[in-house]
C-alpha cells in the first residue's frame, strides 16, 4: 500500500498520482527540488506517537496547497450533495401540489376558532351572558374568533349541496348472489309458535364434538370464552332428538337496537334485559351485520377471515335453549299457545356503519353502496322491530370524541378536529352525492371526529326504504334521561311485552344510568361555545329534515 507523502492520499498500485505536481515520475528528486525540501515539513503524530506509513508520513504547512487538496477530495461529494438537494426539492414540490389537490396536506388546520362572541344568534338565541356563564374563554382561544367566517363558508357550501334522494331498493335475487352462504343457512319460514324467527337445524356431530371449536367470537376474544365454555357443557342437553337424528334450535333476534353510539343504547340495553321476557345475544354488541361478517375485528387492524353466519347464530344459543324448553313443555302443546320470550341484539353500529361495502360489492353508482345492511336484514326478517335512540348530534359528537380519543384531549383539540373533518366532508360533497359521502369508507376513516354518525336522517330514510315506519321506534336520550319510566313504557308497548309487577318495574326504571361520562372526561368541561355554534350550523338542515320525517319538532334540538 503506497501513500503520497505530500497530500496523504492513498495510492493504488502503479498509481503515480499525477494530479499532484510533486509526484510526476520516477526521475523526480525530492532533495534537489526546492519545493520538496524538508525545511517546511512536520511529522504527523497520532496518540503522541510518530505515525509511520511504510516510511515517514509527513504533512506540509502550505495552506495554498491544502486548499488544492481539499477541492480535489471534495469535488465528487459536493456534486452528490447538490444533486440530492435538487431531488428533494422536486419531491417536496410534487407532494405539496398533490396534497393541495386532494386536501391531504399534513399541516395544521388553518381554522382556529374559540369563544365566538360576534353573533350570539348563532347559539340558538343564547345570550352573550349565558355564553360567558357557560364557558370562560382563555387567552389561547380568543384568537380563534376571527376564523369563524371561514368555517361558516365551508358549512354553507355543504348545505348548498344537500339533497335527500330516495335510494333504489335491490331485489331479492341480487342479494342472494352477493351472500349465497347466508341464504343457504337461514330458511324462508320459521316456527309459527315463536315471536322470534327460529327454526330447527340438523346437528351431525356427536357427544365428543365441540360445536364451538371454530367460532370466531370465541377464538378472537378472551372475554367470550367463559360464555362458550358454559355453552359447551349444556349443549347436548338442549338438542332435540327425532328419528335417530339430532336437531338444534336456531334463532335470530326479534328486535334490534340499531343506534346510535353515545346516545344511551347501553343504558337501554341494561334496563331491557331485566325484563323477564327479554333475552339478548351472549355479547351486547356482536357487530356482525356491519363488521364481523366482512372480517373486521378492529377497524385499525384491517380485514381478517370473515365470520360465517353460524358464528353469529351461536350467540343466541342461550336464549334458544330457554325458548326450546318452553316449546317442548306441556303448556306449549296447547293450541294457539305462543312463546312470549323475545330476543334482542344491541349493536350500535347497525344503523350507520356500511363502510365495508366498497371492498365486497361491485356495481356501485357514483360512489353509493348498491346494498346496505338493512337490505339483508329485511330479506330474512321482514317483520323485525327496530329501536333507535338519538341525541343532540352536537353533544353526541363531543361525547364520542371524549370516549374514543386516547390522549391529549382538550376543547381546543376538539376544535381542530371538527375543523379538519368539515373540510374533508366539504371536499367530498363537491364531487359526490350526500349518500356517497356518508358511506365513504376513505372519508370516514380520514375524519378525526365522526361527523357522519350524527346525520341521523340520512340513515333513517335509507332504513325506511325497506321497513315500514311502524316497525321503527325512535327515542331521544334527553327524554329518556328526564323520564326513564315513560320511555321504557314506550319500548314495552312497542315490543308487545306483557305487564310487570311494581317490583319488576321499579327494578328496571330506578336502576342507575349505565355508561355515563368518565370523571377524567368531565374535568375537561363542555366544548367551546364557538364549536357548538359551528356544529349547530352544520347539523341544522339534517335535524330539520329529521323533524319533518318524524313529525316531531323535538328532534330539532333547539335548546338542549
From TrEMBL:
Residues 508-527 are annotated as: Disordered. The keyword Membrane applies. It comes from Eudyptula minor (Little blue penguin). Keywords: Membrane, Transferase, Transmembrane, Transmembrane helix. This is Sulfotransferase. The chain crosses the membrane at residues 78-97. It comes from the Eukaryota. Residues 253-517 form the Sulfotransferase domain. Its EC number is 2.8.2.-. One of its GO terms (biological process) is hexose biosynthetic process. Gene3D superfamilies: P-loop containing nucleotide triphosphate hydrolases. The keyword Cell division does not apply.
Amino acid at each position: 500500500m503506497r501513500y503520497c507523502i505530500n497530500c496523504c492520499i492513498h495510492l493504488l498500485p502503479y498509481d503515480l498520482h499525477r494530479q499532484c505536481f510533486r509526484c510526476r515520475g520516477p526521475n523526480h528528486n525530492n532533495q534537489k527540488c526546492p519545493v520538496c525540501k524538508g525545511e517546511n515539513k512536520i511529522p504527523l503524530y497520532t496518540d503522541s506517537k510518530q505515525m509511520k506509513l511504510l516510511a515517514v508520513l509527513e504533512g506540509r504547512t502550505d495552506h495554498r496547497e491544502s486548499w488544492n487538496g481539499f477541492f480535489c477530495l471534495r469535488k465528487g461529494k459536493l456534486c452528490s450533495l447538490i444533486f440530492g438537494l435538487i431531488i428533494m426539492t422536486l419531491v417536496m414540490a410534487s407532494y405539496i401540489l398533490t396534497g393541495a389537490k386532494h386536501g391531504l396536506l399534513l399541516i395544521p388546520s388553518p381554522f382556529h376558532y374559540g369563544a365566538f362572541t360576534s353573533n350570539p344568534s348563532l347559539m340558538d338565541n343564547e345570550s352573550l351572558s349565558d355564553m360567558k356563564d357557560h364557558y370562560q374563554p382563555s387567552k389561547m382561544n380568543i384568537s380563534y374568533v376571527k376564523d369563524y367566517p371561514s368555517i361558516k363558508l365551508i358549512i354553507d357550501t355543504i348545505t348548498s349541496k344537500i339533497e335527500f334522494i330516495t335510494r333504489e331498493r335491490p331485489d331479492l335475487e341480487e342479494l342472494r348472489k352477493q351472500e349465497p352462504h347466508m341464504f343457504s343457512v337461514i330458511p324462508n319460514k320459521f316456527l309459527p309458535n315463536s315471536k322470534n324467527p327460529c327454526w330447527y337445524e340438523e346437528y351431525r356431530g356427536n357427544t365428543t364434538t365441540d360445536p364451538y371449536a371454530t367460532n370466531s367470537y370465541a377464538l378472537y376474544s378472551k372475554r367470550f370464552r367463559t360464555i362458550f365454555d358454559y355453552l359447551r357443557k349444556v349443549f347436548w342437553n338442549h338438542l332435540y332428538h327425532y328419528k335417530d337424528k339430532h336437531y338444534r334450535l336456531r334463532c335470530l333476534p326479534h328486535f334490534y337496537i340499531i343506534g346510535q353510539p353515545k346516545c344511551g343504547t347501553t343504558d337501554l340495553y341494561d334496563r331491557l334485559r331485566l325484563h323477564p321476557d327479554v333475552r339478548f345475544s351472549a355479547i351486547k354488541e356482536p357487530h356482525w351485520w356491519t363488521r364481523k361478517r366482512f372480517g373486521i375485528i378492529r377497524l385499525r387492524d384491517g380485514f381478517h377471515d370473515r365470520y360465517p353466519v353460524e358464528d353469529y347464530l351461536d350467540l343466541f344459543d342461550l336464549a334458544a335453549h330457554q325458548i326450546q324448553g318452553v316449546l317442548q313443555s306441556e303448556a306449549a302443546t296447547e293450541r294457539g299457545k305462543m312463546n312470549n320470550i323475545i330476543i334482542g341484539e344491541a349493536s350500535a353500529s347497525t344503523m350507520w356503519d356500511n363502510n365495508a361495502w366498497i371492498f365486497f360489492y361491485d356495481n356501485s353508482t357514483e360512489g353509493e353502496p348498491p346494498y346496505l345492511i338493512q337490505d339483508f336484514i329485511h330479506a330474512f326478517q321482514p317483520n323485525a322491530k327496530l329501536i333507535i335512540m338519538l341525541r343532540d348530534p352536537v353533544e353526541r359528537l363531543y361525547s364520542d370524541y371524549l370516549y374514543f380519543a386516547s390522549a391529549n384531549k382538550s376543547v381546543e383539540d376538539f376544535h381542530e378536529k371538527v375543523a379538519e373533518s368539515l373540510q374533508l366532508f366539504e371536499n367530498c360533497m363537491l364531487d359526490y352525492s350526500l349518500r356517497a359521502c356518508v358511506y365513504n369508507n376513505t372519508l370516514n376513516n380520514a375524519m378525526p371526529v365522526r361527523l357522519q354518525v350524527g346525520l341521523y336522517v340520512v340513515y333513517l330514510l335509507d332504513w325506511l326504504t325497506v321497513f315500514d315506519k311502524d316497525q321503527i321506534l325512535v327515542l331521544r336520550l334527553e327524554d329518556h334521561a328526564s323520564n326513564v319510566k315513560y320511555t321504557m313504557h314506550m319500548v314495552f308497548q312497542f315490543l308487545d311485552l306483557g305487564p310487570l309487577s311494581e317490583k319488576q318495574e321499579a327494578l328496571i326504571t330506578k336502576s342507575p344510568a349505565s355508561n355515563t361520562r368518565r370523571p377524567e372526561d368531565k374535568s375537561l368541561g363542555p366544548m367551546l361555545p364557538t364549536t357548538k355554534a359551528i356544529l349547530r350550523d352544520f347539523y341544522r338542515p339534517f335535524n330539520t329534515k329529521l323533524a319533518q320525517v318524524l313529525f316531531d319538532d323535538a328532534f330539532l334540538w333547539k335548546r338542549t
